[in-house]
Amino acid sequence: MRLDACSIQELLRSKSKLRRQLQNHSCRDLRIAVLRGSTVNEMIEFAELFLLVEGFRCTFYQSEYNKYYEEAVLDSERIVKFRPDIVYVHTSCMNLQGWPPLSATEADHESFVAGEFSRFQQIWHSLQQNVGSHIIQNNFELPPFRVLGNLDSIAYGGRAKFVNRLNVEFANEALNDPRLFVQDVNALSAALGSRNWFDWERWYSYKIMTTPAASLALARSVTAIVRALYGRSRKCLVLDLDNTLWGGVIGDDGPENIKIGRETAVGEAYTAFQEYCLMLRSRGILLAVCSKNDEETAKQGFEHPDSVLKLSHFSAFRANWEPKHENLTAIAKELNLGIDSLVFVDDNPAERALVASQLPMVAVPDVGSDVTQFIPALEAGGYFETVRVSAEDFSRADTYAANSQRALLKSKFRDYGEYLDSLQMTAEIDAFKPVYLDRITQLTNKTNQFNLTTRRYTAAEIQKMSLDPAYITLYGKLTDAFGDNGLVSVIVGRKDGSTLHIELWLMSCRVLKRDLELAMLDELVTRAQAAGIETIVGYYYRTPRNSMVADHYRRMGFECESQDPDGGQSMWRLQLTTDYQPKRRYIQLKDLVHT
Amino acid sequence: MANILEELQPLFRDILDQPNLRITRESNSSNVEGWDSLAHINLVTAIEQEYNVKFSIDELLVLKNVGEMVDLMEIKLAAK
């Protein structure tokens, strides 16, 4: 159940349904008393759902409207009877009563601050004496208007100055009181913007202070705090590499050409994201890599002189061609962490969907594919919320580096097929067409990894082959549930009597492990048989970059005809018989109109 | 106009958690079970989000039933 993937509309509509679906989770019970200065049902209903996903089955108590002070200080019997694990004091700047007058002096300002602050101190002390639970206390948003304009935060009569001062007092108190946790509503409302935070129609009609988006942000934040209070904050950020930690695809572009550093706007954006990740590491969050790449190639990215992150910053490093959910499971095991400690960031929605579906306990924020939005998306999740930060946190990553062990997990492919089914893939596979010749030429010249012969062609050569009956040419375009991946595979076969020699077979790394190569093979066999071919011969020529396809033809069902002793070159044969069974299982072929 | 009423059926069913509910133009909080003040807020909020419209305080006060809300929504959506 992925609440992260639900829109506000879906969450608003389907609360009852979602609550029922989530109930079967194994949960611990949690009792939360909400002392409220406004109507909070919407926020509580959201929080209930998010907490259910995190394994907390909550019972809520709500104070009477705007009686948070009275029920905490004067008549706490009902709260005590409720036996809360947590008391959440949900107040806002709309609840502040003792505003200083516009003409306030410095002395007035001090005394008004002290007066308002002492109201809250009484609430906390009374709760601690009578109830003894953790307290989550909101600080204050900036008021929705500034009568003094920019002086509002400077002059002693300014309300912004008053709020800022109270927030400082709240922060100091929280620093010294381990049972008091301040929820920084000032920061939350700033992230959304004052105009998107306050909902005036609903405030005056129903005393709901926040917009649905703001209620959602509050619910997520409270959930993150509860996780932190119960030691369940996430501990490890697992990162993809290509177009996540740097711009470009290192296997194709080469390590010198990845986009990182301050020369270009794109490079700067990725540098900023790397710096953010490094800061997380400095406060004790472990970093790990999970990338579809050759390990050696992947590591070279961190030798780039402008790379902020270095190999030594990672507590685990998985660069291979296996499905990412398997790698994540292995990373968790290697680091001795629960799978629910991981946060996975990847620019590719298909990879995100795979991990989200196979590993529901891993947090997979929808970071999109624009690097400038990665940080805001991560921030909104509150995954690394913590109760306190210590010297042990600051050195945690180094400790892991010293103790790391590699453990490989048995592959479990059982559900991978379901994932491929869910992608609803269709492929357009046909002979070279004029409209695609440019793209085909481009691919033949830049694809290095999934490339059996690495034979390069000019545009003229591609066009010549497309018109020559001595060639069987194929391109493949793949579409899936996430959209059109474009033209991503090319095959060129040259006829020689009843034999077809595959002079070129390449595929973009974007679509690995989708079985597209099986669909291409099926179509190649169909056309070869129609042309009277009885044998297809494949060739593999090893390069520094294409070791991943050394056994491609074996996987396609070809027999090895000959092989260089050092494995640098091999030749493979497939006898075509009438009972060739199509190998593709997860890809539909698009019907093509042949003129 | 019948269109919006039909479109709202699943939304009402979800919010009021009644899979067999059928609302009509005459439906309101006094003749539909489960439509209490909390549900009312949820309904209005969900409709505002779904259709990207905003009801003003005056508008919300005078609406007597679903029919009047649908009429008001027609006007708002046409004005977009």
Textual characterization of the structure:
The complex is a heterodimer of chains A (595) and B (80). Chain A is α/β, with parallel strands linked by helices. Chain A is elongated and about 100 Å long. Chain B contains four helices and no strands. Chain B has helices spanning 2-16, 37-51, 57-62, 66-79. The longest helix of chain B is centred in the first third of the chain and has 15 residues, at 2-16. Chain B is globular. The chains are: A alpha/beta (595), B mainly alpha (80). The A-B interface holds A 8-9, 12-17, 39, 41-42, 201-202, 204-206, 208, 212 and B 11, 14-15, 17, 38, 41-42, 45-46, 49-50, 54-57, 60-61.
Question: What topology emerges from the helices and strands here?
Answer:
The complex is a heterodimer of chains A (595) and B (80).
Chain A: H1 8-13, H2 15-22, E1 28-36, H3 41-53, E2 56-62, H4 68-74, H5 77-82, E3 86-90, H6 106-130, E4 134-138, H7 159-176, E5 180-183, H8 185-192, H9 194-197, H10 200-206, H11 212-229, E6 236-239, H12 250-253, H13 265-282, E7 286-292, H14 295-300, E8 314-320, H15 324-334, E9 342-345, H16 349-358, H17 374-381, H18 391-394, H19 396-403, H20 416-422, E10 425-430, H21 437-446, H22 459-467, E11 471-480, E12 483-496, E13 499-507, H23 516-530, E14 535-541, H24 552-555, E15 559-563, E16 569-575, E17 587-589
Parallel strand pairs in A: 1-2, 1-3, 3-4, 4-5, 6-7, 6-9, 7-8, 10-17, 13-14
Antiparallel strand pairs in A: 10-11, 11-12, 12-13, 14-16, 15-16
Chain B: H1 2-16, H2 37-51, H3 57-62, H4 66-79
